[in-house]
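B., you asked whether I could sanity-check this one before it goes into the benchmark set. Here's the sequence:
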Amino acid sequence: MPPSDPPPLPNRSGFPPSWSESSNPNGSVSAAPSSRLPVEIGPSAGDPSLWSEIDRFQSTAVFGVVTILMSVVQTAMCVYMLVDTWRLDRCVAEVQRLPVEVPHQVERIRREQKLGQEATAAEIRLSNGRSALVCFTYTEGILFLFWAYMAHRNLDLLGRRELKHEPTSTIAWWLVPVANLWMPCRVLCEIWKASNPDAASDDGGSWRRGRSTYVIFVWWLLLWASWVAAWTVSPVKRPDALASPAAFHQFALGFSLDMLLTVAANVPQVVWIVGAIRRQNALYRRLTMAAVAHAAEVESRLSGGDGPGELGRVE
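And here's what the prediction gave me:
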């Protein structure tokens, strides 16, 4: 499961409560205790100008967990409908074999009635389940897009300054024909690489040299394969199983392929969401500890009685 929300900063920018914060003309950050003696903080533990933004970071764990739960429910629905589809197909096949396997007319009629009741019940469940699955899939997709938007918005707060895409790109590219074949995947890859906690925040975008996880590409291929299967089956009205057994068997094959691909696509999606949440939370903790370490170092130097010349210029 995704980790819980990371602990908040001790206070804004990670400085002790008795300290104030100001910006020098050269862009560095000065932290001073209540005595108004400013201390210039260098960039050795990360870009200090980013520390004022870290406290606006919001973990995506909550929306990630909700999206994962929706994927789990969707998987259960797909499996349930897959079982019903093949149960109905089996009933139809048994009805066709009855004249050969059950020569006694009375027994054959009784078996036909029983199988007919099972087939009717399965058809009703499939009809209702198919409509519910469509609505549920759209809801799960909207939640995923909102989660991706929040994850991309966090990147700027975590010090990633050379992003090629805006947070709104996580939604906008899905609406652009042709480009939606690959651009959403590129945006998701950017979220993964920019969330790398091992890449520094002030090194000119070295995080771009990181590698994307293959899980994203596996999920992307399975997702499009499931959509192609769905688009192939959706325009086809489900034939009556008992009246057109051969046509229903062909429909069952296509529908089952759609369900199997949907279930398979949910697995790498969940793995990727969990991994992205962990990476962003780890990066947040790293920057938080850097800010607190700087504050502790400067406070230690001040308590040691160092003169203003060694600490920085005095306003």
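One thing to flag: The chain has two domains: 12-54+293-311, 61-290. Otherwise nothing jumped out at me.
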